[in-house]
Every structure is written in C-alpha cells, then in structure tokens.
Specification:
Helix content: 40-55%
Number of helices: 31
Protein name: Malate dehydrogenase (Oxaloacetate-decarboxylating)(NADP+)
GO molecular function: acyltransferase activity; malic enzyme activity; metal ion binding; NAD binding; oxidoreductase activity, acting on the CH-OH group of donors, NAD or NADP as acceptor
Number of domains: 5
Cofactor: Mn(2+); Mg(2+)
CATH architecture of the largest domain: 3-Layer(aba) Sandwich
Distance between the termini: 59 Å
Family: In the C-terminal section; belongs to the phosphate acetyltransferase and butyryltransferase family.
CATH topology of the largest domain: Rossmann fold
Radius of gyration: 31 Å
CATH superfamily of the largest domain: NAD(P)-binding Rossmann-like Domain
Number of strands: 20
Structural class: alpha/beta
Keywords: Metal-binding, Multifunctional enzyme, NADP, Oxidoreductase
CATH class of the largest domain: Alpha Beta
Shape: flat
Amino acid sequence: MAIKIRKEDALNYHTQGSPGKIEVIPTKPLSSQMDLALAYSPGVAEPCKEIAADVENIYKYTAKGNLIGVISNGTAVLGLGDIGPEASKPVMEGKGVLFKKFAGIDVFDIEINERDPKKLIQIIKSLEPTFGGINLEDIKAPECFEIETELKKEMKIPVMHDDQHGTAIISGAALLNALEIVEKDISNIKLVVNGAGAAAISCTRFYISLGIKRENIVLCDIVGILRSDRTDLDEIRREFCTDRDLYTLTDAMKDADVFLGLSAGNIVNQDQLRLMAPNPIVFALANPDPEIAYDLAIAAREDLIMATGRSDHPNQVNNVLGFPYIFRGALDVRATAINETMKLAAAHAIAKLAKEPVPDIVNKAYGEDKLGFGRLYLIPKPLDPRLITTIAPAVAKAAMETGIAKYPITDWDAYELELQERIGIDQRLMSVVIARAKKNPKRVVFAEADNRKILKAAQIIRDEKIGEPILLGNREKILSLIVDNSLDLTNVLIIDPMEEKEMLARFADMLFKKRQRKGMTSGDASRLVTQRNYFGALMVESGAADAFISGLTRDYPKTILPSLQTIGVKPGVNRVAGMYIMNTPKGPYFFADATVNLNPTAEELVEIIGLTADAVKFFNVEPRIAVLSYSNFGSAKGDIPGKMAKAAALAKKKYPDLIIEGEMQANVAINEDIQREMYPFSKLINKRANTLIFPDLSSGNIAYKLLAELGNSEAIGPILLGMNKPVHILQLGSSIREIVNMVAVAVVDAQSAKNL
C-alpha cells in the first residue's frame, strides 16, 4: 500500500530553521515507514524543489548552515611537518570533535591529495554548496596565504585558516591583558617575533591591527633577522623586513617588551631574556617544547609574564578558545566571510572574559581553587562554558556591524539561550528570572561575605546588574580576600556589624520587642544582633536591605532560625516550606518540601501545596501537582499512602483551580503513557506533572540529591516559601553559579509585592 505524503509534512520534516531564526537542530525520527518516506523518496522531492526555486532555501531545509568543512592537504601537520593527507586525518577528525563539543557545529573532515595551490583552491571552491563554512587546517606556508586569500575572494561563506588566525586571536587577547597588567601602551611597545611561518606572519599582522606600530616589530627566522638586504625572502616575508642594525635574535631582544615565539623548542636562553625591557612578556608557543622552558624563563626574570602552548603551564594559548565560537557566530548570522573586525571582536571578548570571576566548574576542572585575572591567568581556560555565550555573540555583532550578515540576530537573550542549549546547558528558566532581576535590581545583603565564593558571586551580581550586593563581615578580612582573588568590588558596600554601634542598638531594640514575650531578654537581643544572620535579617526587616542570603557555610536549621525570629512568616501562613527547582533535560521540576518540614501532617501538606503552587506560578509556570507516595490511588495501604491521599483530597477542595493528582508513585506521575494505560482518569494525562509533593523531608531530600548527582540535573534552591520578606538560604557549599541563581530569585522576590 502506497503512503501518501503531503507537501507540508515533507517540508516540515526537512526544515532545519527558518531564515533569520537560529534553532538547535534535533535528530530526525526514523522509526516507521512514514518517517522513511519523508526522509527519502518520495518526501525528499519537496525540499529539493524548494531549493531549486530559491537556493537560499538550502539553509532552511538542510544542515548546511551548521556544517563546517575541515580541510587539509597534510603539508604542515602539528609539529610533524609534511606527512601527507592520510596521516593528517586523525588531526582533522579531532578538530571535528572540538567543533561539536564546544560549539555544537557539525563537521566533515576532508583530506585532499593535492599540493598545487591553484588546483587546491578549485577543489575547495567546488565544495561551497555543501558547507556553511570552511576551516583550513595544516597547510604549509607560503601556499596557505594564497589559498586562503583566493578562497575568501571567490566564496560567499566564511573561510578561515585556523593555524594563522586562531593563534593570532588567542595570543592577541593574552597580549592585551598582559599589557594591562604591566601598564604598557601597545602603541609604544617593541615586539620581537621568532619564526616567519603562517602563524607568525598572521600574528604579527593581527598585532598591528591591535595597535602595535610596524616600525617597532622585528621578525627573525632560522637564518636571522628579516632584513631588506636579504635575497632569500618571498614577498610575504619582505612585508616585515627592517633596515636597522640588527642581525641576530640576541640583537633584537635588547630592550624588547614582547617576545613571540612560533618557531622551535629550546632556542632562546636566559641571557637573552635578561636583555629585555622591565616586565617583559614572553609568549613561547612552540609545541611540544617552548622556545625556552617555562621554569628557566621564570628563573631568569621575576618580573616576566609568560604564556606557552602547553596545558601544564599557566596561560596556555590554545586555539580551541577561538575557532569553535568564531565559526558559531559567523554561521548564526549567515556571514559571508570572517573579516578583521570579527577577529578583533573575538580577541577583545576573550580578553574581557578573563577579567570576570571564574566559575567553580572551571576551578574544579583544573584542580584550582582561586583562578583569577593576573600574571598567571591572562586568558580563560578552554573548559569555561561561558566562552560560547561571550565570543559567538561578539563575532555575530561584528559581522552585522560590517554589513556581511545575511540574517541578523534581533533577540540576543534568546540567542544566548540557544547557544547554551547547543552545548547542553539549559538554563532557560533561570535566564528568565535573571532577566527579570536586571530590570529592577535590589539590595541583597550577604551574611557570609568573608567567603571567596560569595565575593565572586557578588562581583557577577554587581557587574551583570542583577542586584546591589551588601557585604557583611570583618572589613579587613573581606578586603584581603578581594585582593587575594583579584576581584573588583569597588563601591560595593561593606558593613562590619561590630563597627555599627548605632545600628546594633537599634536592631537590639527591634529584636527585643519582637521576642520579649517569647523568653528573650534585652541582653540576649544585644548579644544576638552581633551575629551576622540576625544583623542581616534585621537589615531587611528595617528596610536597610531588600533581600537576605545566607547558609553557604552553616547548617540550614541554624541559618533559618534568626530570620524566623526577626522577619517571620506571611500573615495567614502557619509554617514555612522549602522548594527546589530541578533543571532537567526534560524541563524544570519543582520539589517540595525537601528542606524544612520533617514529617508534615495531611493538613500541613495542604498548606505546603498552596505555598508551592504560588511559587511555581511566580516563575511563570503552570503548576501541575502530583502528590507522591509508594502507592497509586490506594493500591497499597499504610500511613504514608493514607496521609497523602487525604492531603490530595483536602487540597483539591481548598484549591479547586489547581491541577492536583494523587496519591501516586513518582514514575507514574511523570509518565503519561502509564497513566493513559492504567489510570485513564488522571488529570495529568496530556499535562505532565511538574510539581512533586513529597510525604516527608527525608524522601524529598533524597530524591533531589539523587537526581542532582545521577540525573544530569541542576538543583536551584532551596527556595524558602512563606516568609514575610525575601530570605533565601543557600545549600551548604553552593557553587558560585548556584549563589548567583539564588540571588536572582531573591531579587525578583523582592520586586514582587507578594513574596514567595
């Protein structure tokens, strides 16, 4: 029996993304005869006809817009030299892995057995219909210059020889930051470049674009200084010849500010470094052995800043910091080229990112505890997940500004989310919360400001305009930590409670009046307000701050008690509750109560359900509530099923407008197929549960922690529900990102007249 294929079904099956909108391309289903007919004949004819009518539709109906060709002829492979196209294939395949891992870009690697540059140009040019961009790789100089130049002229897609420009962009970013540290003006520095191959020439040209004067540059190759009187130089190298009285590398190193090595290992000695100007910058990028060993260089000059191409030394100049994200930005606006402005934008974006607080995930990946901008950290680490959302937008904007973007981006917030999704980071819900926080930042007081994580988070919060941090703690210790971690918290308010005699007296009076009929004396109040958890909570209660954050270093019960005694619960609320947001690959789930109430009664669970439903709505999500136990609708007897069934029944009566179902097992709650087959009466069919109510603290706490560790999910919380003013308690040992997320929640909470 023939299958009838509708045109719209065939086109929808092949659609990759509408023009002007960047989409993450899912895997196409191929599990039925219908899928096969859509994927190939007869369905495939429809997109073919659409593309024939308008060739630009190729980006809509095929994967071209997310496909890069990594192309080499194997004439300059790594440090191995001219080993041929077959031997180059592992490198090209590896490059494809990096493109996919770091930027979500698909790759075909193509190894071409052709050494004639003109023939190679024609071969690559003929591949333009297949690819959205071309990454040239491991092609020897000087042919690589001719090949790239001609392809950029003749092709209407981005083309870049990464060996040239990748090294230039990354080392250029490192140079900008190194010069800032040593307080030298780029227009006045003297540069010595050892090496005159593709990377060296391109780096030199790029540094000129950054601001170095051509007359302050000297290049040296294996023969000696590139001088005008040499007869062995091609036109490309003659571009950098000098007439000065310099003949050897040693001559050139005298009073040089910067040395850039792109040559061979162990050809520079300590005496040559000692000839350089004060605070010299040495980029010894030969691999695997630098031009001078790191330990020897540091021993020769205490004032030296050094970068290498090795991962076992600080400041690794690694091209993976650049090419995935440069092509990502170029593809996403459908740029017709990668121009100098885009490369400069990438370098400046990389340099700027290095000055921002380093996420915990990066510190942990590299076995560090306080990476930060300085002589040992000039550029970000390759595993920094912020690279894609920093560099790709900068490149895309530069393409738009220079008029080569065929489909400009208009919604940059949405674009950032799409970039995160491409590499497996889905923070959509929190991105919405952070965007809301930025619209009206509030004053957030931190009780534990003598902690480096809090201080790093505070800088992000201040820099990103999420909120206005107020730091509580010993002033000298906080200032020392700021310096030790290379942070910039200028103009952030620091309050040492022990220095604030007037506030202490006022807060002690407030606390005594609140607790005098609950056994607290005036002396007790005066003593307690010196503790930061009391002081910070009273700042919020008195209006001196808008939200309170604590709990990073103390147990939850000890942290929450001062806020309960000073701020208290909302009118009509009998008890507070705790909720976690679990960001999972299937979307956000809301867990309650996993932190506060040990073993709530059915009546107490009804109140928890109401508080949780309000909180879920607060995040602009419709609550679809499953009341959980080990039973399904009375299938098993016991105290817990009985309690949860009663809670569900009472909650349905009290909140008739909410979707509430249960009691039921957790897997049934989130599996509509089971419900459809076994429990067709369930209100959660076609409305998958997103809010899970647990019978006690133990089950909720175990569930969220298991999911966080084993389920590839991020826990946001605990979010405290029912307080009269914004108070939020961190998980013990929260990461910097988790702190920032919680502060964003607290700020939005403070913006709302009806708090969580």
